[in-house]
Amino acid sequence: MGKTFAEKIFAIKSDKEEISVGEIVTASPDVLMCSAVTFAIAIEQFRRLGVKKVWDPDKIVVILDHFIPAPTMQVANNHKLIREFVKEQGIKRFYDIREGICHQVMVEKCHALPGMLILGKDSHTTSYGAIGAFSSGIGATETAIILATGNLWLRLPESVKILVKGKLPKGIFAKDVILKIIHDLTSDGCTYKAVEFCGETIERMNISERFTLANMSVEMGAKASFIACDNVTKEYLQEHGCSPHYKPVFPDQDASYEGTHEFDVASLEPMVACPHQVDNVRSIAEVEGIEVNQAFLGSCTNGRGDDLEIAARVLRGKKVHPNVRFLVVPASRAVYLEVLERGHIRTFLEAGAVVANPSCSACFGADGVLAAGERCIASSNRNFRGRMGNPDSEVFLASPATVAASAINGKITDPRNLL
To answer: How many angstroms separate the CA atoms of 215 and 219, rounded?
Structure first.
């Protein structure tokens, strides 16, 4: 019997020839990703272990991204603690507040490569499945353990295959696809599973689109996601100057899966996740006309160059509705420079949007906090109650095109007539 991607990667990283689903192994990650939001806690726990030096400073990446620039004294103190720690420990791959969101930076800077095992202090670490890595989120305690020992216990998850076929219709994007999948499989339908995305639709997607699928796989409970390394992956990595000496890992054709789910997207409509669950998804026809007070374009899910280009195309020559605050936040400095050169920043500003520095921003309420009774439509990944800073507000999730169209009309709007 063949092996899934997860079965192969776990065997490789734990130095075992055979490993069974559910088995717990000790493995050392190729990269430990530490985002700023709770890394200070992990540092304190590391100190309490009595270890003086981290296991391998060259395998640690630290990125300040959630609260940047520091909005409070406490955050500023945490940032100072982190800066001092990386200097003390000789961690060279440190990105201060200027660079952008951790997951975007990890891929742009070639710290995530096919065939790697990557663990990260953020739940959306599943994102690196877009380039063929096994990547998963961990907590502060686990982060401290890896900092000290370089190892962590990991349970080999069951694997689920998601086959997507059909050509995406005009005005339908990867965000619509993943929202449809999460709706059908539910928010706990893949709990602690390794999800493999495949099929002709996935093969036609660029890395940014694949990133959206991998990023949001955690919203249906996935431990990790995977999209096979192919020519699209190789071209992306080459364009970004990544080393060609990575070793992709592929599932066997006769691998056994816990389940296989097929989706035909040829007739898919724009999809919107309604409050307060990501799997509370409706077609655009069911929610069109609901008034919004804020629109947010950004996050590690849909804050890349093509996302902003799609929104700029919708917005060009138009104005943001006077009752809407439209926040546009590129996912990284590189993305900001890209869309600046293409003229999209000017389009956003002339339309009346507010363009902010690359960061997680309104995605989790670092800024762009909603008032009681307000609604936001966002290209981000979560819409839990209070996610944007106020438990008495509502967040809807949609594609960048739907977000931009809704910002223009002041209500949830089908973007297909504006593209």
So the answer is: 8
> Strand pairing of 375-378 and 294-297?
parallel
Distance of CA 122 to the CA centre of its chain: 10
- The matching CATH number, chosen from 2.60.120.1440, 3.40.50.300, 1.10.287.3510, 3.30.499.10, for 271-418 is 3.30.499.10
CA distance 206 to 346: 25
Q: State how far the Cα of 242 lies from the Cα of 234, in Å rounded to an integer.
A: 9
Confidence class for position 364, pLDDT limits 50, 70, 90:
confident
| CATH number of 24-262, picked from 3.30.470.30, 3.10.50.40, 3.20.20.30, 3.30.499.10 | 3.30.499.10
37 pLDDT more than 80: no
Same fold, 24-262 and 271-418: yes
Positive or negative torsion for Cα 360, 365, 371, 377: positive
Angle among Cα 52, 58, 61 to the nearest 5 degrees reads 95
| CA–CA gap between residue 294 and residue 281 (Å, rounded) | 19
Nearest to 134, CA basis, from 111, 151, 122, 116: 116
77: which residues sit within 8 A by CB, 6+ positions away? none
For the whole prediction, is pTM greater than 0.90? yes
Amino acid sitting at position 248? P
List pLDDT tens digits, range 286-333. Answer: 999 999 999 999 999 999 999 999 999 999 999 999 999 999 999 999
The rounded distance, in Å, linking the Cα atoms of 87 and 115 is 29
- 3-class SS at 183? helix
Quick one: which of 190, 412, 202, 389 has its CA closest to 279?
Answer: 190
